[in-house]
Design a protein that fits this description.
single chain, globular, 6 helices, 2 domains
């Protein structure tokens, strides 16, 4: 199974590298807004993807996060490190495969007090590939090792 998944991902990486690679350790837009404006508190505490609004925003390590309410903003401000997305908000499966891809903000899982985002398009549902592997800890271990290098690359 792993060889098939690796082949699929590598083929996708080769066809997408030019548009999917990012030069930063955080998946942010030109305004330094993380998570495409989705609330990190909604992901982690509620297990749902909710778009935040600019009236409730915070900055942490020069990255801006949006929230759905003043309560969410306060929760984040009390412990911003807890609410950081895995792999800078890039696709967890892409990180596992050794590349940075922008995820679909509606494709995520919450596990072990962390949230992981995934690429989704017509050619690839990275969340399903991750879940099909059935060994979350192994995937995280490999992705964590790859992230050390990927987070520092400026391709």
């Amino acid at each position: 199974m792993k060889n098939i998944i690796t082949t699929i991902v590598l083929a996708f990486i080769v066809s997408s590298v030019a548009i999917a690679q990012d030069n930063k350790a955080n998946n942010i837009d030109n305004s330094n807004i993380a998570l495409q404006g989705y609330s990190p508190v909604s992901y982690l505490d509620l297990g749902i993807a909710q778009k935040g609004i600019k009236e409730y925003k915070s900055e942490y390590q020069k990255v801006v996060y949006y929230f759905t309410s003043a309560d969410q903003k306060k929760t984040f401000d009390n412990n911003p490190k807890k609410y950081q997305p895995q792999y800078g908000g890039f696709c967890a499966f892409g990180t596992y495969a050794g590349a940075k891809f922008r995820p679909d903000p509606n494709k995520f899982i919450v596990k072990d007090g962390k949230y992981f985002l995934y690429l989704y398009n017509l050619e690839l549902d990275a969340q399903q590939l991750w879940l099909a592997e059935k060994n979350h800890d192994k995937l995280v271990s490999v992705a964590n090792k790859n992230w050390v290098k990927l987070s520092k690359t400026h391709n």
